[in-house]
Amino acid sequence: MSNLNRFMGGSPGSVLVKLLFLSLLVGAFMAYLDLTPFALFEGLFNWLRSILDISFESVRDVLRWILYGAVVVVPLWLLSRLFGRR
Fold first, then answer.
1. Which of 6, 28, 30, 44 could form a disulfide with 35 if both were Cys (CB 3.0 to 4.6 A apart)?
2. What are 32-52's pLDDT values in tens digits?
3. DSSP state at residue 86
4. What is the distance between the alpha carbons of residues 57 and 63, in angstroms, rounded to a whole number?
5. pLDDT above 70 for 2
6. Measured between alpha carbons, how far is 73 from 7 in angstroms, rounded to an integer?
7. pTM beyond 0.70, yes or no
8. 55 versus 73: which is more confidently predicted?
9. What is the C-alpha separation between 49 and 42, in angstroms, rounded?
10. Within 13 Å and on the Cβ side, how many CA atoms surround 33?
């Protein structure tokens, strides 16, 4: 078996026929669902953007909680260090 056949998973002709047939099936299914490749990529990018927005919102919320807690905790810690017995 040549390197090209091994790489492609069979003879180039048979692989081409299989790819054409699968492309026809997938294309027909996408046409039936009224999907376009552009719509698929746009949906993927919108999904990724929403995931990142959620992630950044979560990070922002956590940082805000840390700041709120630090406003209370740090002065109490400082007072306990200044007036604490050793």
1. 30
2. 999 999 999 999 999 999 888
3. -
4. 10
5. yes
6. 62
7. no
8. 73
9. 10
10. 10
CA distance 81 to 86: 9
User: Is 15 within 8 Å of 9 (Cβ atoms)?
Assistant: yes
Residue found under tokens 């746009």: 42
**Three-class DSSP category at 70:** helix
Nearest in space to 27 (alpha carbons), one of 14, 16, 40: 40
What are the tokens at 39?
Answer: 């719509």
Q: pLDDT value at position 51?
A: 85
Identify the sign of the CA torsion 48, 50, 53, 57.
negative
Tokens encoding 64: 């805000």
